[in-house]
Amino acid sequence: MVPDEDFINTCRDKRITKKFFEVHGIRTPKEINKHNPTYPLFAKPFDGSLSTNIHIIKEPSELTQKILEDEKLIFMEYVDPAEYKEFTVDLYYGKDNLLKCIVPRERVQVRSGEVNKAIAQKNYIIEYLHERVNHLPGVRGCICMQLFYRQEDNDIIGIEINPRFGGGYPLSYYAGANFPKMIIEEYLIGKTCDYMDNWEDGTVMLRYDSQVITKLDKR
User: Fold this and answer.
1) Which of 7, 26, 90, 171 could pair with 205 in a Cys bridge, judged by C-beta atoms 3.0 to 4.6 Å apart?
2) Is 17 helix (H, G, I), strand (E, B) or coil?
3) How far apart (Å, rounded) are the C-alpha atoms in residues 218 and 154?
4) Beta strands in the chain (DSSP E)
């Protein structure tokens, strides 16, 4: 119930992920020549995770020698969050490698790469992905795709793909997209899952930290 190794390797290297998006007609951020840059720009490791070692570079003084010499960094146009909203999309693929469910989650607030506040939304992203990645050979189970979306003109920019459940999947689950049930039906009961979209639009997830204070029993 996980994708083939080739697809996992595609997701692990963001340079290959970019090619995957382009093959499937999904626009990606423009590449920037670090030796002849335009500002602002964005740099991140091609194999990074949890938003580590990322850089928003707004002017020449911020493009340090250390950043330039980091061989893992890839450089691209900066996508302005004031203009685009960031989404993670939970996608479930059946044994037949066909899409069975699509749930876009707006990442309202993110901390250390993990979503803290999010909203499940039925919007143009569903139609857009259904047209482009409805059938992916070698892909099965849950994957999550990260996109930027501009509602005014339905412009979409593909960023990353994770071949696994995303940290924010509980939002999709409580909205009604029960991927664990689909896994049980497919892999334990032998049913064929149909496409479903009857999850609840506008479901919100708010996460928080809490603390527990107690005293040691010194007896």
Assistant:
1) 171
2) helix
3) 63
4) 41-45, 55-57, 73-77, 85-93, 99-111, 114-120, 141-150, 155-162, 204-206
Nearest to 118 by CA among 107, 103, 130: 107
Contact 44, 73 (CB under 8 A): yes
Pairing of strands 73-77, 41-45: antiparallel
pTM of the model: 0.89
Decide: 99 and 133 in contact? Cβ < 8 Å: yes
Place of tokens 């691209």: 76
Tokens of 85: 């909203």
Q: What is the CA 16 to chain-centroid distance, rounded?
A: 15
For residue 22, give Cα distances in angstroms to 28, 102, 111, 154, 183.
7, 20, 29, 17, 30
Q: Which amino acid is at 10?
A: T
Please measure the distance between the N-terminal and C-terminal CA atoms of the chain and give it in whole angstroms: 52
Q: Residues 6 or more apart from 181 whose CB is under 8 A from it?
A: none
Give CA angle at 70 (69, 75), nearest 5°: 100
Calculate the alpha carbon distances from 145 to 7, 61, 168, 207 in Å.
Answer: 13, 33, 12, 21
H or E element at residue 142: strand 141-150
Tens of pLDDT, residues 152-210: 999 999 999 999 999 999 999 999 999 999 999 999 999 999 999 999 999 999 998 88
Q: Angle at which helices 14-23 and 5-12 pack, to 10 degrees?
A: 110
